[in-house]
Specification:
By secondary structure, this protein is α/β, with parallel strands linked by helices. It is built from 7 helices and 19 strands. Bound molecules: flavin-adenine dinucleotide and FE2/S2 (inorganic) cluster.
Length: about 350
């Protein structure tokens, strides 16, 4: 990380730590200098700079699970990622937070960012769909919807069992604030006495019985297999793809087996593209392929995915650097400021559109 990027991080104190379930813990973070708190929209995330154990730092993203109206602090809610086997290390950041960080600790964070945001201007009914710790953005959204709108809301959450279910009381209290909010909890391995509405996998039949035919805004967040399954079920039930907004936590896979990851809901307006003879092209130098830019894709990454190419990505928000590629020639526009300055011969595909024809080292 460059000095400029490092200087954007601000010290926040952990003012409380709360166990939410057997695997999930919340941390409330308040700026050491009260003026450094920045507003956010429900669904956005913070980037934390955490010690990597080797004298350096690692970056990890955590969605703010509290309401954007709780000014002065942010709550993040973190699942402890244990090692899947003895041969591999445990999750660096989540285990550090769970095992070592206590109230009084200071953590450096960047300002909230991310395109997965509640569209508060829409009047459509809302479906908030989450798997596991993917409920962090949907709980923040529910906070806003319960208090500031009359839109019908379905909060649907799937997890393994009551033991690992986080924020249940908060969700039930929010749903009780007004009529029109339905809650459904589905436990994959429900134990005796676990209170839930359905068991096993969240199925097409369950969703069909819960959701009357309507034109919904759907917000979806969870592990890749959950996202793939639910995306298939929803589109199979006739939900339009552009109504489904989604967030992947961590290294993401594509939403469909065919390699399609649809554009995020309400992407920023496409930048004007410089006119050229023959139009703007995205040229892949290594593979010798060339595509006419469509002028409408959310980003070069989304455009390449629509052509059946699968560049690596993770955050899709200019933070992690996973989508970085060599820029052989041409100019791009950053519609999301990257965390780190990019040299002229490199480009982040997830947050750029072409200003002219570009040649990528791909
Ligand atoms: C936009 C966004 C928002 C997010 N919001 C949240 C949130 O609200 N809450 C939340 O809990 N998470 C969230 N995440 C995920 C979070 O950023 C981290 O990815 C997560 O906490 C795991 O990080 P870690 O450092 O603990 O694990 P890592 O060190 O990245 O390891 C991940 C897993 O891989 C295993 N592993 C490590 N090394 C190896 C190896 N060599 N071979 C095989 N396996 C290995 C680890 O044991 C662990 O299980 C979000 C991610 C994104 C992109
Ligand atoms: S995918 Fe993380 S920076 Fe582009």
């Amino acid at each position: 990380m460059s000095d400029a990027a490092a200087s954007r991080f601000r010290p926040f104190e952990v003012v409380s730590k709360k166990r939410e379930s057997a695997t999930i813990t919340s941390f409330r973070l308040a700026p050491l200098d009260g003026g450094q708190w920045r507003p956010f929209e429900a669904g956005q995330f913070l980037t934390l700079r955490i010690p990597d154990g080797k004298g350096g730092y690692a970056l990890r993203n955590y969605t703010v699970s509290s309401s954007p109206r709780e000014e002065g602090s942010y709550r993040i809610t973190v699942k402890r990622e244990a090692a899947p086997s003895d041969e591999v290390p445990q999750g660096l950041s989540s285990c550090w937070l769970h095992d070592e960080v206590e109230p009084g600790a200071v953590i450096e964070i960047d300002t909230p960012r991310g395109g997965f945001k509640l569209d508060a201007a829409s009047t459509r009914p809302v479906v908030l769909l989450s798997g596991g710790v993917g409920l962090t953005p949907t709980v923040s959204m529910l906070n806003v919807l319960a208090r500031e709108s009359e839109r019908p809301v379905w909060f649907i959450h799937a997890c393994d069992s009551a033991e690992v279910h986080a924020l249940r009381d908060e969700v039930e209290a929010l749903a009780a604030l007004r009529p029109g909010i339905s809650v459904h909890f589905c436990y994959r391995f429900a134990g005796d006495g676990d209170r839930c509405h359905s068991r096993g996998f969240l199925s097409r039949d369950t969703l069909q019985s819960l959701l009357p035919l309507d034109d919904y805004d759907i917000y979806m967040c969870g592990p890749p297999p959950f996202m793939q399954a639910l995306y298939g079920i929803l589109t199979g039930l006739g939900v339009r793809k552009e109504r489904i907004a989604y967030e992947f936590f961590g290294p993401a896979s594509l939403l469909t087996a065919e390699g399609e990851t649809p554009a995020r809901k309400a992407p920023p307006a496409p930048a004007p593209v410089a006119a050229e003879d023959g139009g703007v092209k995205i040229v892949l130098e290594k593979s010798g392929r060339s595509f006419a830019w469509d002028g409408a894709s959310e980003s070069i990454l989304a455009f390449l995915e629509a052509q059946g190419i699968e560049p690596a990505f993770s955050c899709r928000a200019g933070v992690c650097g996973t989508c970085e590629q060599g820029l052989v020639s041409g100019e791009v526009d950053y519609f999301e400021e990257p965390l780190d300055d990019m040299p002229a011969d490199r480009v982040l595909l997830c947050c750029t559109r072409p200003k002219s024809s570009v040649v990528l080292d791909l």
